[in-house]
Amino acid sequence: MMKNIKMLCIILINTFILLILIEVLLRSFFPKKNIVEASNIAYQYDVDYLISLKPNIRKEFVRSSKNGGDKIIWKTNQLGFRGDHLEKKELTIAVYGDSNIQARFSSLENTYPKKLEKYLQEKTQKTISVINGGVVGHGPDQSFLKLKKEKEYITPDIVVLNIFADNDYGDLLRNKLIKIDDNEELVFATSSKSQDPIFDTIKNKPYKWYHLRMKDAIRKLRDDLIGNPSLLPKNIIKTYYRVCLEEYDDYQNDSEKTYSNFADHYDIDIAIDPKSESATLKINLMEAILKKFKNYTRKNNIEFVILIQPSPIDINKNFLINYEDIASDFPEYKKDNLTSILQNICQKNNIKAINLFHSYTKDDPKKYYFIDKNNHWNDEGQDLAAKITSSYIVQEIIDKFHISSKK
Q1: Do 99 and 137 meet the contact criterion of CB atoms below 8 Å apart?
Q2: C-alpha distances in Å from residue 322, one per residue of 46, 232, 294, 303, 375
Q3: pLDDT tens, position by position, 151-199
Q4: Which is more confident, 251 or 404?
Q5: Exposed, middle or buried by CB within 10 Å (0-12, 13-18, 19+), for 377?
Q6: Considering only CA atoms, which of 202, 200, 212, 227 is closest in space to residue 32?
Q7: Does residue 204 carry a pLDDT above 70?
Q8: Which of 16, 141, 153, 279 has its CA 20 to 30 A from that of 86?
Q9: Residue 46: its H or E element
């Protein structure tokens, strides 16, 4: 009996030592990149709107093999805008939005702001500067605060706000920057704002022993052989819905929980039931911040245009889930819920708006977005949006209001 126990102990000790050696080898030959160092060092905490781009940086983005594998080099200027140094031109346009506008996944000349600049110059024969004010993860509330902070030195004639009708509603809850008070007025948070969890280099340190590389290896083997259960459409939809409700509860209860700007997700609560409590709150906050945008730009003699960009989930089958997956579980779902609500808000408040939903769906919607896990518009999607926007600006603003250059 003692001999068997001794043998079992030897086997267990040897197995434990072997597992430690395997873990050490995995960490040595397949090091796990630090999340902050790998992708987010280009960003920094901003006391006003939570996160901003660092000035004078140069970064690399590599598209997945399914999206061509292209290597993109992108950089910021001395003011922290993507692109080259700003130059005074006859007409200045500032474009605000999230990662779709910053577009680190596209070469500078293929980004929406640069394409818009190119098409407007061709149509007007004016010298035009289109400033890329996009930042990964930014919601409309952050874009508004960013515009207020930099208006005096970029002095735009026109501001275009891109709203991604996928996750931008939810940003207004996650950011916790705005509220509607008892008088139904929009108020901004005055308390100190928490840093994005992504910047906590201690929590994100890649070599902590509680995060076993063997677990990663086993998970990868499972994914390669049978797939990742969490990426099944039904499970993704359940997760989105659960998280939407959690975010709503946190917002309503003034929770101290801090959400990352790099963890946005599809607003499925609005897509399947726009009259639900969480959806209604998001819609009300969206209308309030867009009215604030309109009033501020009008007061400062700036023309204001909303660009409504549909989610790939609602118009094609490029992403991990699509409209058919949602409709099978939620018969009340409509593909244009997220975009039509925005359009109605703009019409109700006399805000100029361009809705890309119909332009993207009348042809071949899958060609305007990346595929697989990337939900952004691709070069072709940005190009079409820039063409449509340039025509709209010429017809509705430049020709109609005779905008002239600043003296």
Answers
A1: yes
A2: 35, 12, 33, 35, 11
A3: 999 999 999 999 999 999 999 999 999 999 988 899 998 876 788 887 7
A4: 251
A5: buried
A6: 212
A7: no
A8: 141
A9: strand 43-46
At which residue do the structure tokens 């980004």 appear?
Answer: 111
Beta strands in 255-392 (DSSP E): 303-310, 352-355
pLDDT at 113: 98
Residue 248 makes CB contacts below 8 A (sequence gap 6+) with 173, 269, 277, 278, 281
For the residues 394-402, what does the mean pLDDT come to? 86
CA 296 vs CA 73, 144, 176: distances in Å: 35, 9, 21
Burial class of residue 209, CB neighbours in 10 A (0-12, 13-18, 19+): exposed
Where does 56-207 show beta strands of DSSP type E? 58-62, 71-75, 91-96, 128-132, 158-165, 178-180, 186-188
DSSP 57: -
Q: In a 3-state reduction of DSSP, which class is residue 95?
A: strand
75 bridge partner residues: 58
* 56-93 pLDDT, tens digit each: 999 999 999 999 999 999 999 999 999 999 988 999 99
Instruction: Tell me the pTM.
Output: 0.87
Q: Could you tell me which of 76, 53, 75, 202 has the C-alpha nearest to residue 137? A: 53
**262, 195 in Cβ contact below 8 A?**
no
Look at residue 353 and give its three-state secondary structure. strand
CA 134/CA 378 separation, integer angstroms: 16
The alpha-carbon radius of gyration of the chain (Å, integer) is 24
What pLDDT band is residue 202 in, cutting at 50, 70 and 90? very low
Angle of helix 379-393 relative to helix 112-124, nearest 10 degrees? 40
**SS3 label, residue 160:** strand
